[in-house]
Amino acid sequence: MPHEHNHSHCHDEGHDHDHDHDTNDLGPQDSLYSYIDRSNVVALNANNPGEIVIKPWHERTDEGKSLESDADDQMIIRVPFTGSVRLRSVLLKTGPGDRTPSKVQLFANQENMDFDDIEDKTPTQELDVAQGREVGEYAVKTAKFSNVSSLTLFFPEGQGADTIQIYYLGFLGHWTERKNNPVITVYETQANIADHPKVQGTEGNFSSPQS
């Protein structure tokens, strides 16, 4: 009988936690806050550094600190992660009212983009931002954000006011350490190429006695 009892636990061995479940299940345990390289977050055209709106989960509704665009209603926030992230959704608290961005464009793994670069690039995904006092959760196409080391958010325009304002920016998903597999694959490919001349040389040895 003990074997049957153990058997009931076998579903725990699977990667159930890795499968995409309904975003309604997401919560503090899925927050990527601790995996953001916060000292290297950059906000462009902002009235102060961007790190202050990337807050711990329990401060997501706090309005004590915010980020406002400076010269116009555009802003870029660059967010590097400390590993590889599979992004599930972006959390935003913005506004109020006309100071809400009309949309946000997400760019995965595009380092050091500024306003000049961004005009020529196609976003990985674009999301419309709704007005409201709550923290909005915006689900992304996980397949396009399955191996993200940095995320650039571009807010191209507001909803009427001269500036946009952001109170909170957060991310939900899964974090893994950066994998070394791609590097190993490259070495294997190079090794295979190096092997071919040896094979040809061996054939030459076989034919030499007949010449």
Could you please describe the fold and organization of this structure?
The chain is of the alpha+beta class and 211 residues long. It has one domain (21-176): Jelly Rolls, CATH 2.60.120.470. 18% of the residues lie in helices and 28% in strands. It is built from 3 helices and 8 strands, in the order αββββαββββα. It has helices at 2-7, 115-118, 181-207; strands at 42-44, 67-68, 75-94, 103-108, 125-128, 136-139, 148-155, 165-176. Strands 1, 2, 3, 4, 5, 6, 7 and 8 form an 8-stranded antiparallel beta sheet that branches. It is globular.
Q: What is the level-2 CATH architecture name?
A: Sandwich
* Average pLDDT metric: 81
Query: For this structure, what is the CATH class?
Result: Mainly Beta
Number of strands: 8
Radius of gyration using CA atoms only: 24 Å
Q: Give the low-pLDDT segments.
A: 2-23, 182-189, 204-208
